[in-house]
């Protein structure tokens, strides 16, 4: 029994030590320059690319950096109220009866746009919209009919999002 407890303790210690590993100085500096209010910073590294997860005053963010601190991209989760008025107005104009509650801000050094899924009565539309409200891309995703005989059975409308 003591050996099992000792092994569990050693494994736990190794996991804790692995999680306490710090970001390289270049990545840490670049992150603090771009996101000075970043909190609860966690990261994963694969082939010298760092995926850094953190929270800002607004929402959760995932930023990607090279091991030299070069920023590659960021993805910020946003609610409808956090999106620019121009973006919300463009959606309302194009889909007056459409509904959505959240989206993402996707950024690279060359580009930035909002990615939002709008639910209408007939389909879901995946949109890419710039900060000025111009719709850059529209992808229609057809919803399956509710009365189809797919063998699923049961109530499909009451689940969590």
Characterise the protein shown here.
It contains 3 helices and 8 strands. The chain has helices at 2-19, 25-34, 85-94; strands at residues 39-46, 49-55, 60-66, 71-79, 102-107, 112-119, 123-129, 135-142. An 8-stranded antiparallel beta sheet has the order 1-2-3-4-5-6-7-8, covered by helices on one side. β3 and β4 (71-79) form a beta hairpin. Residues 4-19 and 147-161 have low confidence and may be disordered.
Entry summary:
Helices cover 24% and strands 37% of the residues.
Residue runs with pLDDT of under 50 for 5 or more positions = 4-19, 147-161
What general form does the structure show? elongated
The number of E-state strands comes to 8
N- to C-terminal distance: 44 Å
Provide the spatial order of strands within the biggest beta sheet: 1-2-3-4-5-6-7-8
Class derived from helix and strand content: alpha+beta
H/E topology pattern: HHEEEEHEEEE
User: Mean pLDDT, as a whole number?
Assistant: 82
Biggest sheet descriptor: 8 strands, antiparallel
Cα radius of gyration in angstroms = 21 Å
In which range does the helix fraction lie? 10-25%
Share of β-strand residues: 35-45%
Instruction: Give me the number of helical elements.
Output: 3
């Amino acid at each position: 029994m003591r050996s099992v407890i000792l092994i569990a303790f050693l494994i736990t210690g190794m996991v804790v030590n692995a999680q306490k590993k710090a970001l390289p100085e270049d990545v840490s500096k670049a992150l603090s320059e771009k996101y000075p209010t970043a909190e609860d910073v966690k990261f994963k590294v694969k082939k010298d690319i760092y995926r850094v997860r953190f929270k800002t005053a607004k929402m959760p963010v995932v930023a990607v950096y090279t091991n030299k601190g070069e920023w590659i991209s960021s993805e910020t989760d946003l609610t409808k109220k956090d999106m620019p008025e121009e973006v919300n107005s463009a959606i309302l104009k194009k889909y007056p009866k459409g509904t959505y509650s959240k989206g993402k801000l996707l950024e690279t050094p060359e580009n930035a746009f909002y990615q939002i899924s709008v639910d209408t009565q007939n389909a879901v539309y995946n949109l890419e919209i710039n900060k000025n409200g111009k719709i850059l891309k529209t992808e229609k995703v057809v919803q399956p009919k509710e009365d189809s005989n797919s063998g699923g059975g049961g109530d499909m409308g009451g689940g969590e999002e």
